[in-house]
């Protein structure tokens, strides 16, 4: 589920671990951009690769390689693990998907990167829930600091590791996958 909210001047996008189709013109444009990127590299657009691309640009959820494999196989059961692992570096090379390392045994991929390259994440250390947020106040502070130090912001990433409210309330997080 994706919930959008605003709290204290911060735009929030709450992301759960489920696949949601996002019919968005920006997503369709990103998908077409990626297919053109593959053509420029003289790479074939196979049925499996198309299922992967449709999956990536049909969600705004963060995902792991294994989640992408599972979701893509819902579209086309023939999608192979190898094709997913060969396609992910191409997605990141294209600049349309961002690979993130949060210190886990796996990478997380952000399909919102091309639309919002300067957004931040809060990661629940208990259930791995990811919450994206943007803040005009934070952006102004970043610009002020970099300007005072003689720099210009090209990109930024802020990751906050925390425990979600569920853990505080119940002492255990029901969102945690076993």
Q: Can you give keywords for this protein?
A:
178 residues; alpha+beta; Arc Repressor Mutant, subunit A; 5-stranded mixed sheet; two-stranded antiparallel sheet; 6 helices; 7 strands; flat
Proportion in β-strands:
15-25%
Poorly predicted parts: 1-23
How would you classify the helix and strand content by structural class? alpha+beta
Mean pLDDT: 80
> What is the strand arrangement across the widest sheet?
1-2-6-5-7
Q: Using the coordinates shown, work out and report the CATH topology.
A: Arc Repressor Mutant, subunit A
Q: How is the main sheet built?
A: 5 strands, mixed
CATH class: Mainly Alpha
- Run of helices and strands: EEHHHHEEEEHEH
**Number of DSSP E strands:** 7
Q: Rg, please?
A: 18 Å
| Fraction of residues in H or I helices | 25-40%
Superfamily (CATH H level) name:
Winged helix-like DNA-binding domain superfamily/Winged helix DNA-binding domain
Total number of distinct structural domains: 1
Number of helices: 6
Overview of the structural elements:
With about 180 residues, the protein is an alpha+beta fold. The protein has six helices and seven strands. It is flat and about 45 Å long. Helix 2 crosses helix 3. It has one domain: Winged helix-like DNA-binding domain superfamily/Winged helix DNA-binding domain (Arc Repressor Mutant, subunit A, Orthogonal Bundle), CATH 1.10.10.10. The longest helix has 16 residues. Helix content is about 40%, strand content about 20%. The two termini are about 20 Å apart. The strands form two sheets. The chain has a five-stranded mixed sheet. A two-stranded antiparallel ribbon has the order 3-4. The N terminus is likely disordered.
């Amino acid at each position: 589920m994706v919930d959008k909210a605003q709290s204290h001047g911060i735009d929030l996008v709450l992301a759960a671990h489920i696949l949601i189709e996002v019919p968005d013109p920006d997503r369709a444009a990103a998908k077409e951009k990626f297919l053109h990127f593959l053509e420029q590299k003289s790479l074939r657009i196979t049925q499996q690769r198309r299922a992967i691309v449709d999956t990536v640009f049909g969600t705004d959820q963060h995902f792991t390689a294994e989640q992408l494999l599972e979701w893509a196989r819902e579209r086309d059961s023939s999608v192979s693990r190898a094709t997913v692992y060969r396609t992910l570096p191409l997605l990141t090379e294209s600049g349309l998907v961002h690979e993130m390392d949060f210190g886990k045994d796996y990478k997380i991929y952000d399909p919102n990167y091309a639309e919002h390259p300067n957004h931040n994440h809060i990661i629940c250390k208990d259930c791995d829930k990811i919450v994206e947020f943007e803040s005009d106040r934070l952006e102004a502070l970043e610009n002020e600091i970099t300007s005072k130090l003689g720099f210009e912001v090209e990109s930024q990433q802020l990751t906050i590791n925390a425990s979600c409210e569920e853990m505080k309330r119940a002492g255990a997080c029901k969102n945690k996958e076993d």
